[in-house]
Amino acid sequence: MTPVIVAESLTKLYGSRLAVDQVSFDVKPNEVLGLLGPNGSGKSTILRILTGYLRPTSGTAKVAGYDVIENGLEARGQLGYVPEDVPLYTHMRVYEFLELMGRLRGLAETSLPREVDQVVERLSLGAVRSLLISKLSRGYRQRVAIAQALLGKPKLLVLDEPTNGLDPRQIIEVRELIRTLARELSILVTSHILAEMERVAHRVAILLDGKLLSVHTLGGNGTSSRVRVRLRGSDEPTVRSRLSAVPDLAVAEAQPAQGTYVLESARGTAYAVRALVESGFAVEEASQAGTGLEELFLRLTEGAQR
Amino acid sequence: MKRFLPLLGKEVRALFYSPIAYIIIGVFLILMGYSFTITLFVNKFATLVHIFFQSAGLLFLLIPIITMRLFAEERKAGTLELLLTAPVRESHVVIAKYLASMAVVLAMIALTGTYAFVLGLFGSPEWGPIYSGYLGLALLSSTLVSLGLMISALTANQVVAAIVTIGISFLLWTIDTLAAMMPDALERVLISFSLLARFQPFVTGAMYLSDFGFFVSSTLLALFLAMRALARR
Q1: Rounded to an integer, what distance in angstroms lies between the CA atom of residue A144 and that of residue A129?
Q2: Residue A220 — left, alpha, or beta (φ > 0 → left; ψ -120 to 50 → alpha)?
Q3: B228 touches chain A (CB under 8 A)
Q4: How far is A142 from chain B (nearest CA, A)?
């Protein structure tokens, strides 16, 4: 399938400061790609280039096949963007703002009310649709910003630090929303929080000082690819030999003395547990083991800073 | 056009949502009304020449207050990012802001038409200079609005935008004084940029195509530069 984003050797200079240095990556259809890096690593600059707000000093980027410079209008028509600080026209009411953004996205007057109703319902904005945006809480503003980005059914949703400033409940809601939306479109999301990325992204691109250090594949969609299990009465050779016959499941780490194994499961935790039981193992305990992203991130960023 | 009209509507609404537009129009009309009444009672001439010059003077101060927020405010609030990443043309964004600001300024100028009405009711004014004077005010406003808009596109600070616009406008208004001290060749060049020298004939009923062309081309140049300023991101 053709990637929704293809970025090649993107470079951005602010004066003499190199903000983005030869970054290349792609985002496939229905994939959530996370850009992970500390503040100032170039995440937002990359998003701004892809959304047409900034022009790259060199390199090219395409959104749904359209070059973001040569065919900027068409490229921007394929994406919805939520900038980091959730800028909104606060003097407008929610529905007025959504109608304006829908019109700017070229929605026909006949379909506009229906499209606005759909995003209002999807983001649970019904109770506040007639309120001035200036009266809304941070959480509602975030929802309004995401709602406007979904108008016109874009192929790509670009979210810059979508959970910043939200309370734990709102963070969970945004995370759930990202997972649901990933069934319909591709999502490019930035964060400096590792745990966030592990929960929502299929792949994570790690950035430091404008350089892309690595692209790491995760289980994605909240299903960690690594499962920690404790098995009763099974030695390591038996575990390895029986699991070699099970598809999409492999032993990543083993601590046979404790009967503990970390398994790589391409189909999530439930699949791993079911496969173990069906293979005749007594599973005493099973939990998500994390993706190893934290170790990878530390290793890469320490290595680069040295 | 499908995406331009919503942009224009947004700009007009933003200007009239803010109390600034009403305060500016109110202050302008009060000062002009006062000036018109005093001038009429003292001179007893059915003319608007003084009003046109005084209006021009006030527009130099008031237009930068209207234009200072056009881009500077959006840049500071971050909404410029939202606007320019939507599938709209930068040129449409600039033109929508220009037309919305001109709507406020023209409404303000049009309301002084009541003075002409009063003159027509109680005297026999010469209508030619009145029509041309209003045309001159509209053209001068167009140049000032586009200049203010261009400067607003260069900064995120509204106060800076207003002060720089006032400074450049006054420099262009009075540049003929400087021109008088220069050698002939340079004098002619400088006078051709003088807003006063370009505006004066309209007030006295003399319209020259070159003056008309100056105001139109300076407006287009400033709007073009505003688009370039936006594109230079």
Answers
A1: 9
A2: left
A3: no
A4: 13
